[in-house]
Design a protein that fits this description.
The protein is α/β, with parallel strands linked by helices. 59% of the residues lie in helices and 10% in strands. It folds into three domains: 141 residues, P-loop containing nucleotide triphosphate hydrolases (Rossmann fold, 3-Layer(aba) Sandwich), CATH 3.40.50; 67 residues, Helicase, Ruva Protein, domain 3; 144 residues, Zinc Finger, Delta Prime, domain 3, CATH 1.20.272.10. The chain contains 17 helices and nine strands. The strands form three sheets. Strands 2-3-4-1-5 form a five-stranded parallel β-sheet, sandwiched between helices. The protein has a two-stranded parallel sheet with strand order 6-7.
Length: 364
């Protein structure tokens, strides 16, 4: 185990669940659970100001240079959730940079003795002096979610599949997609919600859409997707119900318009693909075919995420929704969205009334 070779460890990443599991595993290897009462020092690293950052650095340094309890075989300082390392303003502060040098020098010059240090942080600038100096002496592990949307979806789908298998479950494609829509690639949420699904199903091992609807919690983002889907499926009553819930929970009316505008743009793309013969629909599935040269170049360069890279289930679902509207109706709906936006910012009509009228006009 690398813990025998290194005395410093840096775990960095925004995928909190696997990072936390790996950190706890390392802690248990370095300091046996029976010795952790005296051999483990946990220093909270969350800080939103210069003073708070300096205070947690000072506490980490003091814990690092304080000898282990005589009856303890080893000591580990866990500097946990050090948030300010990813804060551009705080990380650039000269006092903070100078204080961080003390952490590195304690390891370099032997003032830490045999004490080990584990730093966990959601992110940090790899160009910073602290990262370069510390990582040169530490074992570094990264737990980063990808920054591209289609890669995040791929990672999320893989995590859901792996955690379902771990619980001895299987799921229909639509159920997997619904879990992904509701939770994204957040490992901790996925683990918790699949645990709930497992307990809910009991002896049943096949997850259905109804099971997901009944058990898996919706984040605010997933509720917005539910509204988008209601629009795409042309289900007015469902859309109005979701809208009222969202507004009651404090969702921005402008945010609703922007979100529905994004879905309309996608539906127009899929409608155009079908009308031009670029998108081939077969029952519940759909597949992009070859495109004219200029269109192929546009798909590759103009979109943040090339629609052709979407999962086949997503392509089929979006094509099915696009079939509910003609291209002319979708363009009309874009104009309705623009009119509604102007009404929200310029009229005294209640925002809920404006948005409900908008949905009625779009789906009539």
């Amino acid at each position: 185990m690398a813990a025998g070779k290194k005395k410093a460890f840096l775990f960095v990443g925004n995928d909190e669940h696997p990072l936390s599991l790996a950190a706890r595993e390392l802690v248990n290897v370095c300091v046996p659970p029976a010795d952790q009462a005296f051999g483990l020092d946990i220093i909270e690293g969350r800080a939103e100001s210069v003073d708070a950052a300096l205070e947690t650095i000072k506490r980490c340094y003091q814990a690092l240079v304080t000898p282990a309890f005589l009856m303890t075989g080893s000591k580990l300082v866990w500097w946990r959730s050090v948030t300010f390392l990813d804060d551009v303003k705080l990380a650039a502060n000269e006092e903070i940079k100078e204080a961080l040098k003390d952490i590195v020098s304690a390891l370099e010059e032997g003032r830490a003795g045999e004490t080990m240090l584990l730093v966990t942080t959601p992110g940090m600038d790899k160009r910073s002096a602290f990262y370069k100096q510390f990582s040169a002496r530490a074992e570094v592990r990264e737990f980063m979610l990808p920054d591209k949307a289609y890669l995040v979806e791929r990672v999320g789908r893989e995590k859901i599949g792996a955690m379902l298998r771990e619980k001895g479950l299987s799921a229909e494609p639509a159920a997997v997609q619904m879990i992904l829509d509701r939770l994204g690639a957040d490992s901790r949420l996925i683990a918790m919600e699949i645990e709930k699904l497992s307990l809910y199903l009991g002896e049943t091992k096949r997850v259905t859409v109804k099971d997901v609807e009944a058990v898996v919690s919706s984040t605010l983002t997933s509720v917005m997707w539910d509204l988008q889907d209601a629009l795409g499926e042309r289900k007015l009553a469902k859309a109005v119900e979701i809208l009222r819930e969202m507004l009651a929970d404090g969702e921005s009316a402008i945010g609703v318009v922007v979100s529905l505008s994004n879905r309309l743009r996608d539906l127009l793309l899929y409608r155009e693909g079908m009308d031009q013969g670029w998108l081939h629909v077969r029952g519940e599935s759909a597949e992009w075919g070859s495109l004219p040269g200029e269109v192929d170049a546009l798909f590759s360069s103009a979109f943040k995420r090339d629609p052709r890279t979407a999962h086949p289930f997503v392509v089929g679902r979006m094509a099915k929704q696009a079939r509910n509207y003609t291209a002319a109706v979708l363009r009309r709906n874009q104009a309705i969205l623009t009119d509604s936006y102007e009404a929200l910012v310029s009229s005294r009509v209640p925002q809920g009334t404006v948005l409900e009228l908008m949905l009625v006009r779009m789906m009539s």
